Fold this sequence. Notes:
There is one protein chain. Helices cover 39% and strands 17% of the residues. It has 521 residues and is α/β, with parallel strands linked by helices. Strands 10, 11, 12, 13, 14, 15, 16 and 17 form an 8-stranded mixed sheet that branches. α12 (338-353) packs parallel to α14 and α16 (435-442) packs across α18. The model has no long low-confidence stretch (mean pLDDT 92). Residues 264-515 form the CoA carboxyltransferase C-terminal domain. InterPro entries: AccD/PCCB, AcCoA_carboxyl_beta, ClpP/crotonase-like_dom_sf, COA_CT_C, COA_CT_N. This is Propionyl-CoA carboxylase beta chain. Residues 4-260 form the CoA carboxyltransferase N-terminal domain.
Amino acid sequence: MSIQTEKIKELIAKREQARLGGGEKAIDKQHSRGKYTARERIDMLVDKDSFEEYDMFKLHRCHNFGMEKKQFLGDGVVAGSATIDGRLVYVYAQDFTVNGGSLSETMAQKICKVMDMAMRNGAPVICMNDSGGARIQEGISALAGYGEIFERNILASGVVPQISAIMGPCAGGAVYSPALTDFIIMTEGTSYMFLTGPKVVKTVTGEEIDAEHLGGASVHASKSGVTSFTAKTEEECMQMIKTLLSYIPSNNMEEAPRVECTDPINRMEDSLNEIIPDDPNQAYDMYKVITAITDNGDFFEVQPKFAKNIITGFAHFNGQSVGIVANQPSAYAGVLDVNASRKGARFVRFCDAFNIPIVSLVDVPGFLPGTGQEYNAVILHGAQLLYAYGEATVPKITITLRKSYGGSHIVMGCKQLRADLNFAWPSSEIAVMGASGAVAILCGKEAKKIKTEGGDVKEFLAEKEDEYTKTFANPYQAAQFGYIDDVIEPRNTRFRICRGLAQLAHKKQTLPAKKHGCMPM
């Protein structure tokens, strides 16, 4: 056998060894937890035979606490490039079978390498987290590794899409990398995220809680809003990533992929002419409006379990990817609050960063009142939504369906925040406030006088409310001033959006020269 042949055999053997990660026993243990290995996850996600792995033979350099005896090729993370539906992506997956997926200095170098390559080549970064945190044996070197990763997350923000899949533990400082990315997906029952674990919580506060209730998928999906999606299985998680990628571009210099449209753009949806109830206080389901106007009724919702009074997600109009922001009248009457405001603001800013037009469907009676909201800085969070809309330079189309009152009218993509096209349904009420509240202020003294004179106060107030409604609570006064471009028939909404997007296809709008704005936080 020649020397060259021997070297090739050695290479093949080393590759096989690297692919085993922490070894067969560790792999079996991972499977017994209902979890796949790092390489199995990558294989599920990317196109067949497209994965090119980098730094397969990298080893850590730690010799403290006997770590020199715990050497595994690749050192706990599988990283490289691949394609998904033919599009280039960079991906890394932490390998829990190797030292619990704990992060070392060399592991961080591998991650930073693929993130740097992603930015240079304009491709999305997908990270799969399954790690016990920093490798304690390496001390400050492991922490420095996290710092290097976080800096890449920051530099890549708004340059290439970043998607995090949490498929196991993600605790301590490790949570900040996913938090800095654009979207987080958590697997139900097997993943959790928190800064301090149950033991620390009990020591410091005396509170007894397990990992699932402290930082599980359901908690972050419905209460904190940390995660964008939850998946019942790892297979479902991978499919979610593929679906998400189909709506977004590879980088901030490109447009999102267009798809073939088989749904006529001039399709009339007669049900929309009847969807608004006669009673202004009666709810209806905004999802019915969304699915009635999008291509084939498809809608990919982001953060579906969090702040349900506002809906965010992606859809197609005539094959073009669009971000939808919509108030939901069937949840808290569609009012804006702290959570709805920050949910909407984050989504609008992502769409703006990656050239995705924004369609806003407005039915908002105002901001939620009360000390709970004021003490939790609803002013600042509402300003975040306002800032996001006002800063966005992508095509913006706003359609007012029913109520649009006061400050909430402004923050939901009004004409003054540089919305390009503002349409309204005939049922819309655009005013400073609702009729009853306005009349109580405007006619309060008269009402008191009538009451003292023994007159019918209810009849008087009803008459004034009707007068206010006819004068202000309609779209025509706003249209009179040019704040509404047109009052449209509801069933024609899809066509007006599709045609509007076509008109705005080559929109150019810039912001004043500055380093960056100071968004209210």
